[in-house]
Write a structure and sequence with these properties.
The protein is α+β, with helices and mostly antiparallel strands. About 45% of the residues lie in helices and about 20% in strands. Bound molecules: zinc ion (ZN).
C-alpha cells in the first residue's frame, strides 16, 4: 500500500488538541471532586502545605489532574507541539479556580445562594482571608491578608503539578522531521551478570552499526549470554522506524536491569539510515 505522507502541521496540531482536551477533562473532573470534598469535609486538600511554604496538596492535585495529557498524547501517533505546555498552565489556572467555584455555587447565605450576594472574585479573596492556619494540628487562627500569599503559594504548586504532568506526557522518542512517534522493532538482546563482557559485545556491535552492516549485530548480541536473562545487564538492539517518512534508526542500549528494570542507562548508540525513496 502506498504510504501517504501527511503534512506535519495538521497532524501535530491534531495531536496537540487531543492531548489538551483530555488534559482539560481530567483537570476539571479533579477540580470538581476536590471542590466537593473540601466543601463537605471542610478539609482543604489544595491548601495542604509542609511548613507553610511547600504546597504538597496543590502540587499533587495539579499532577493527578494532569493525567489526561498522558492519555491524550498517546491517542495519535504524533508528538504534540510544545505549545501544549503553555496551554496546560492556563488549564491549571482555570481548574484551580474551579475548586473555589464548586463551593461558591454550593454555599448558601441566609437560605439564598451565595452567588446572589457576593461576586466570584470577591468570594475567592474572602475564602483566602478566612483560611484557617495550623501549626502541626493546632489552629492558630484565620490567615487574614497572609491568606493571599498562601493562595499564591498553593496556585504555584498547582501550576507546577500541572505542567509537570504535561511535560511527562510527551513521547520522548520520535522522528524529529515529522514529529511522528517511532515504531519500535525488537531485533535481539543479550544478557550477562557482569558488565565487562557485555561492554565488549556492545563495542563489537557498535563497530558493525557504524559500518552500516545492520544485520551483523543481531547474531553478535544474541550470542551474548541469554541464560543470564533478567539478572543484571542487558544489551538491546532495536530498529526504530517512522512510518510517515520511512526514516529509520538502529539503536543499541546497554542498561542495568536489576534492580529495578533499566534504572541505570549505561551507554547508548544509535544511527539513522537514509529514508527509503519511493
Ligand atoms: Zn518521519
Amino acid at each position: 500500500m502506498e504510504n501517504t505522507v501527511t503534512s506535519r502541521p495538521q497532524t501535530v496540531f491534531a495531536a496537540t488538541v487531543v492531548a489538551l482536551l483530555l488534559g482539560a477533562v481530567t483537570n476539571f473532573v479533579m477540580a470538581i471532586l476536590v471542590g466537593l470534598f473540601q466543601k463537605y469535609s471542610h478539609i482543604s486538600v489544595v491548601g495542604f502545605t509542609f511548613f507553610f511554604v511547600f504546597p504538597v496538596g496543590a502540587f499533587l492535585c495539579g499532577l493527578i489532574g494532569g493525567i489526561g495529557y498522558r492519555f491524550g498524547a498517546r491517542i495519535l501517533p504524533y508528538r504534540p507541539s510544545s505549545i501544549l505546555l503553555v496551554f496546560s498552565l492556563l488549564i491549571s489556572l482555570l481548574s484551580y479556580l474551579c475548586v473555589f467555584f464548586v463551593s461558591y455555587k454550593l454555599t448558601l447565605f441566609r437560605g439564598e445562594p451565595l452567588s446572589t450576594v457576593v461576586s466570584f472574585p470577591d468570594y475567592v479573596l474572602l475564602s483566602l482571608r478566612n483560611t484557617r492556619t495550623y501549626i502541626q494540628t493546632f489552629e492558630i487562627g484565620r490567615a487574614g491578608s497572609a491568606g493571599y500569599l498562601f493562595g499564591l503559594i498553593d496556585l504555584a504548586g498547582y501550576l507546577l503539578g500541572g505542567i509537570a504532568a504535561c511535560a511527562a506526557a510527551f513521547p520522548s522518542e520520535y522522528c524529529k522531521k515529522c514529529h511522528r512517534v517511532w515504531n519500535r522493532y525488537f531485533l535481539s538482546a543479550g544478557y550477562t551478570v557482569a558488565l565487562s563482557p557485555l561492554e565488549k559485545v556492545f563495542h563489537d556491535a557498535e563497530v558493525e552499526i557504524l559500518a552500516e552492516r545492520y544485520d551483523q549485530p543481531v547474531s553478535i548480541i544474541a550470542g551474548a549470554g541469554s541464560k543470564a536473562r533478567w539478572t543484571a545487564y542487558q544489551l538491546k538492539y532495536e530498529l526504530l522506524n517512522c512510518s510517515n517518512c520511512e526514516y529509520s534508526r538502529y539503536q543499541l542500549s546497554l542498561s542495568r536491569i536489576k534492580p529495578p528494570p533499566e534504572k541505570l542507562l549505561r551507554r547508548k548508540v544509535s544511527k539513522d539510515t537514509q529514508p527509503v525513496n519511493r
